[in-house]
């Protein structure tokens, strides 16, 4: 007989929900100390979730992804990304759509995008001046949004670009605190009462974004194949096994999925990287020495630097942007981590708890990039981009962007933390971000 949900938290579900929204890391710390590698949380009407954090259980989940509905488990994101998003698909439909979307994010295409990332970064930081103080996360958002607009949407100038840029930034900022993030979890707040209600404003921005994207797609359909290499153009040119192209609605929803999955997350991770690099001057010095060792600074040579890669990996380990991987809903009874779970049980592996394990990462709360030069971790031990059949499609592009932005900035500017106090983590929509965004000061320009 299948077991009942293990280690059920007895705190009232409404209290669990508030705690989860306000501080999901403290929530997980508390109950992992109390229950160990597995516990069951109840988040009111959002659902009951079994949280697992042993690599063996995580591997069981990834090995048996076909036994779970995962798109259905992401239904909470539908109001933002739309019902045609890859994130909300399951089975053959998910497999086919993922296959269609994969080419732009891998192989030779990345080399094309690498040069664009460096150019975008150069333009964004060119105006920095000695003595200037700025918020790292905001500066990285500017770069990340420009990468999305140019590389993904294929927009670099013109009226549509000028309209979309501030609109997207404004829309993304509407869930920039734990309180505002409640909109995404509490259905009773999701009422469109016009522009004076938070949800109404959010939906208004969404409609405006959809209209602009629809106009761009319609214009490109009339132009035909122009040989463009941006992700939208490649998505429009893709055909499934039956020779069918993606619909306009699917294209728009996938673009917004990439926006939410790639813009916020990359900007946040870069802000944390700058924070740790400038907290630990020995790490900064090692990075500068490695950059100086290059005979010629090119996107390709910079992206291959081992210590730079290790710094990015350690940042993603210590500061997972999402606290847990996508929920998995069991289609029938399934065995994971030594437990038998009934159909409809929702399982979630905790990225944060796996990355905090002392048996895997000694002194787990210490920033130490060298650990990634000393050993390799399995996909069940290191999972910043999720795993199994749902590993983030854009993980290679995200890692490339991180490395190239860091390399470009560090080789041109000497920066310092503008404040000595530790930076705390706070919820920002579905993601976790540095409270205050990390304040940096420009010490000098490196000639």
Low-confidence stretches: 176-183
Placed side by side, the strands forming the largest sheet appear as: 1-2-8-5-3
The coarse overall form would be globular
Radius of gyration: 22 Å
Largest sheet: 5 strands, mixed
Structural class: alpha+beta
Number of discrete helical segments: 18
Helix and strand string, N-terminal first? HHEEHEHHHEHHHHHHHHHEEEEHHHEEEE
> What is the number of strand segments?
12
CATH topology: Cytochrome p450
Q: Regarding CATH, which class?
A: Mainly Alpha
Could you say how many structural domains there are in total?
1
- Estimated share of beta-strand residues: 5-15%
Distance between the termini: 70 Å
Which CATH architecture would you pick? Answer: Orthogonal Bundle
Q: Give the % helix.
A: 40-55%
What is the H level of CATH, i.e. the homologous superfamily? Answer: Cytochrome P450
Question: Kindly state the mean pLDDT as a whole number?
Answer: 86
């Amino acid at each position: 007989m299948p077991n009942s949900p293990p280690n059920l938290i007895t705190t009232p579900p409404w209290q669990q929900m508030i705690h989860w929204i306000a501080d999901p890391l403290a929530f997980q710390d508390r109950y992992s100390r109390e229950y160990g590698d597995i516990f069951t949380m109840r988040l009111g009407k959002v659902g009951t979730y079994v949280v697992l954090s042993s690599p063996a259980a995580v591997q069981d989940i990834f090995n048996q992804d076909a036994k779970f509905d995962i798109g259905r488990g992401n239904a909470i994101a539908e109001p933002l990304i739309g019902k045609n998003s890859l994130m909300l698909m399951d089975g053959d439909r998910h497999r086919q759509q993922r296959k269609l979307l994969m080419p732009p994010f891998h192989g030779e295409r990345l080399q094309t995008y690498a040069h664009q990332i460096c150019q975008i970064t150069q333009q964004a930081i060119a105006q920095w001046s000695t003595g200037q103080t700025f918020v790292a996360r905001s500066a990285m958002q500017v770069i990340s949004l420009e990468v999305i607009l140019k590389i993904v949407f294929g927009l670099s100038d013109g009226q549509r670009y000028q309209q979309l840029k501030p609109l997207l930034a404004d829309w993304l900022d509407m869930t920039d605190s734990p309180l505002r993030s409640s909109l995404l979890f509490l259905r009773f707040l999701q009422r469109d009462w016009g522009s004076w209600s938070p949800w109404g404003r959010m939906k208004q921005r969404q409609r405006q974004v959809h209209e602009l994207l629809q106009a761009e797609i319609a214009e490109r359909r009339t132009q035909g194949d122009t040989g463009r290499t941006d992700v939208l153009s490649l998505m429009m040119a893709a055909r499934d096994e039956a020779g069918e192209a993606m619909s306009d609605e699917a294209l728009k929803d996938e673009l917004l999925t990439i926006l939410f999955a790639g813009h916020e997350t990359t900007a946040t991770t870069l802000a944390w990287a700058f924070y740790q690099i400038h907290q630990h001057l020995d790490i900064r010095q090692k990075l500068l020495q490695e950059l100086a060792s290059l005979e010629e600074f090119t996107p390709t040579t910079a992206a291959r630097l081992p210590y730079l890669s290790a710094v990015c990996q350690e940042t993603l380990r210590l500061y997972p942007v999402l606290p847990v991987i996508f929920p998995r809903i069991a289609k029938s009874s399934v065995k994971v981590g030594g437990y038998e779970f009934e159909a409809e049980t929702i399982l979630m592996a905790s990225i944060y708890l796996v990355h905090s394990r002392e048996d895997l990462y000694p002194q787990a709360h210490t920033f130490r990039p060298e650990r990634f030069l000393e050993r390799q971790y399995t996909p069940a031990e290191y999972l910043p981009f999720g795993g199994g059949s749902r590993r983030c499609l854009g993980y290679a592009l995200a890692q490339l962007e991180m490395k190239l932005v860091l390399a470009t900035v560090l080789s041109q500017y000497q920066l310092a933390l503008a404040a000595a106090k530790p930076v705390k983590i706070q919820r920002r929509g579905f993601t976790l971000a540095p409270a205050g965004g990390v304040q940096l000061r420009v010490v000098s320009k490196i000639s």
